[in-house]
Amino acid sequence: MKSMRLSAIAAALMVAMPLYAQTADPAQPKLDNNTQQATADAEQESKKAAQVAEDDIEIIAVTGVYQADLKARAMERDAKAFSSVIATDDMGNFVDQNVAESLRRIPGVTLERSEGEGKYIAVRGLGPKFVSVSMNGAELSGAGDDRKIGLDGITSDSLGAIEVFKTLTPDMNLNSIGGAVNVKAISAYDRGKNTLKMKLQDSYSELREEQSPKFSIDGTQLFLDEKIGVGFALSYEDRKTQVDEARHHSTRELNFLKGGIGLSEEELSVAPEILIPAQLENRREIADRTRTTATLNVEFKPTADSFYYIRGNYSNYTDDDIAQREFYNFYNGDQADEIIYVNADTKEFALSDIDVFNQYFVQEGETTTTNYSFGGENYITDTWRVDYEYAYSKTDDKSVGDRRVQFRERENIVYGQGSKNNIVAQVLTPEEAAALGGFALDPDNDVFAGEADGDISDLSNMEYDNLFMEDSVRTDEVTSIKLNIQKDFDFEYLNFIKFGGTYNEREHFRDKDRWSYAINPLDCGTDETCITVANSNVTDYNYGVPEGGLFNYPFVSKDDLEYIVDSTKITRESATGGEVSIDSTKEDYTLYEDTYAAYIMAELQLSEQVSVITGVRYAHTEFSSTGYMSLSNDDWDFGGDHTLDISVPLPEASITYSEFFPSMHLRYEPNPEMLVRTSLWTSYTRPSFKQARGYARFDSDISLCDPTTNECYSTPDGQSAIDLQGYILGPDNALQVGNPNLVAMTSDNFDASFGWYPSKELFMEAAVFYKNIDNFIVDVTGIQMSIDELPLTLPVNQVSDFAIPQDLALNQVDITLNGDKATVYGIELSYNQFFENGLFWQSNMTFVKSEAELDATIRQDKMQLPGQADITGNVAVGWEDETFSFRLISNYRSDILEEVGSCPATASVADPKSCKSWADIYQDDILTFDMKVKYDFTKSLSVYFDAINLTDEADLRYFKGNDLSGGEILYQREDYGRTFQLGMNYKFY
């Protein structure tokens, strides 16, 4: 790949340098603030829907689906790179709650939802981690430890346009293999006149059965003979949501299970084995979220040679979140005497010693994002142009006073069965378990070996046993400086040469203070209220099973939760010994990332119909991070009150990498009806913060092994603390580890497109693309690695209660690695038609195929690129006239491989314990339908009604599974229900 890039660089320089050496009298006209103003009069649309300048796109205020479509086509056609564009007026014609949901209507773009709302986007089947997001060309900060930027906090009312670039020129940020999204602030010069618009909306969540009001106002104003332009927007929303969820344990794999009570030794030796879920969690998230956003864009054009701006965007997002969670820990029953029943045909099972518990969680968070930039553009002479910008973006995510109480009953008998759409869990009585297993109960001999003493049917056994409190702060801060210089020419074959660079500094840190501990009345001192509450059970409060059929057991009321927390939080000092808990440090980190880039490019005019942009960009990255190794467990007795609670700082990890990225973009316009583009370009995608930061976290449910017998124990079996010092950590203990040795994945890209514009009413486009990706980044689960093979040096010598050898091979390591190579190729089709009778059809479809090759120690077979969907499509059919508009919209996305199970070359494909391809996690395909109706009472007043998710689709993720599991097994299912919106727009112009 490097040889190809160097060849491309040489070709670009061979073409550009001789042309630059020519001499001629330049006569390039000046730009009028990067845009030429066009009329919004419908009569002018027949000539062209929008007029654009050399480097920017004009936004025209239009109404109606037809004129909006014309406008979008013209904007895309005149852009330098292959792109798709949505303007603000287009958003009013879609069923969209925010910017992310607006974007899924355009070719090749799909949406990733979070708690029922669009948040992240994928381009051409490549997931959010392959897509960069910027505002007015500047990188945005984010609250998460992924690089993907959530767009749910940006309302469409505050923007002038959204651009999705599918090919990137050297003057753009190339940190995007899939595509680049740029959201543009509202601009008075773009609108070209004084405007003021107000929106009122109320939405109704069918699942939550609550209403969510929204208000926004936006406008533009021109002053001093149009030398000053001001664009502004204000928005407020009080959104009430509910998500019902069933999920598997987030870090554990499926468990192997064989056996059953009543089986003889001979029968047990030949008993079939199955794969079962490790856990079922039923969860309900009820959230009250308020969003306040403000945008201000002040632009100043004192002369035709100069342009200056100050832009700012503020977003405040508060979240009052209540989570109710019910757990069934199947992994507690993994010992031979705890396996009651296994059916290899139906994959049903019954286990004893199962913890059944519920948690009531209250979280009150606030996320504030501030973006601002200032810069300008000047003509130094008639042919030299310089533009420059300073940009700053900061996100503060705070959650203070989070609290949770837990009620639990241990040693239950639980029946279970997994499938793609659900995991069934039901507590059984001993009699029901005996009938299922086909054995008799003996009053003189406990067939359950003391592992089935729980009785959750008596709700007084659901005892208050754990208190959780947390304060968390996360900050992401990005500062950037950009400079571009362009020399325009009037040569026959050369339009301009442009060069420049950028410098970015980023600091991202997380600080969490968490306390989670078992409640003990002895920690209350003499406080009688605390002692009473510490000894309480669920029946001592107002309790009930929430409606909807999601839960089987009751929760206390929210008022009682607050009373329980207030009464027992005084135990924290005594319960934790006044020490900082491992839970308060294990997820803390600070990372720094400094990047700079420089480029040179030229536009060549080969003929009146053919132009070429070619050049090269150099990008350099310096990354460093801090983190912790953590290991905790409170099941084992290590002497006295001592429990395992270790959190050790890791040495700072750092890496530096850089590369040249050449490109060439050809545009051929044989006639006004046809446009052909081809591009050969290179780009990259850096790893996420979670993937690249240094950390190592052992699962808290550890097993210890006697090296003399090789027998392992997950719970104490009479060992003393002295005995345990001779034990070693078991090989099946799960470990999550970061990888600071990751480098950016790089890609050689080829794109070609053909657009046909036979009339204003008809548009068709076909595009093909190919990507050859090196060092692609993949999340791997369940890989076998020894501790001394990890990308981090772990301070395991600081564990003295038992031994962790440096050469210990662990069978369940979750890690992110650079793969070898991956290829992606596909075709993108668009067809839009408007008919004289008012009917219209808008559609696009993207077909993608990929093949990825991992290192042989991870996966022996080639596979689909993680994060990629094979098919995506959008169809909108409707009818409109001058006052009425109806639209039915459908979106489809095929399934996506999200995580990869380990199956190294040394493993036998027939052995599911060494080849864990069954642990691959997929996001299921989804087909949604939305509807929008709009009626214009006057030219100023319109009313709309939206129906979202008409068919009540859910987001589903699942393990691939195999014959032992009976096929796919649920990983996560989120139900959001339908949403209905009623609103009005009023224009004061």
Low-confidence residue ranges? 1-62, 90-95
Oligomer: single chain
Number of strands: 48
The dominant shape is globular
Helix content: under 10%
Radius of gyration from CA coordinates:
31 Å
Class based on secondary structure composition and strand pairing:
mainly beta
Count of alpha/pi helices: 12
What does this structure look like?
The structure is a single chain. This protein is mainly β. Helices cover 9% and strands 52% of the residues. It contains twelve helices and 48 strands. It has a 22-stranded antiparallel barrel, surrounded by four helices. A hairpin with a 2-residue loop joins strand 13 and strand 14 (306-328). Residues 1-62 and 90-95 have low confidence and may be disordered.
Task: Write a brief caption for the model.
The chain has about 1000 residues and is mainly beta. About 10% of the residues lie in helices and about 50% in strands. The chain contains 12 helices and 48 strands.
List the helices and strands and how they pair.
Layout: H1 2-20, H2 65-78, E1 83-87, H3 88-91, H4 99-103, E2 109-114, E3 117-123, E4 131-135, E5 138-139, E6 159-165, E7 179-185, H5 188-191, E8 195-205, E9 210-223, E10 228-247, E11 255-257, H6 265-269, E12 274-276, E13 280-303, E14 306-328, E15 339-342, E16 349-379, E17 384-418, E18 423-428, H7 430-437, E19 463-488, E20 494-518, H8 528-534, E21 543-544, E22 555-556, H9 558-568, H10 572-576, E23 589-605, E24 610-625, E25 628-633, E26 644-649, E27 653-671, E28 674-685, H11 689-692, E29 696-698, E30 704-706, E31 711-713, H12 721-724, E32 728-729, E33 734-737, E34 745-759, E35 762-774, E36 777-786, E37 809-818, E38 821-834, E39 839-853, E40 871-880, E41 884-893, E42 896-901, E43 921-923, E44 926-936, E45 941-948, E46 954-962, E47 967-975, E48 979-987
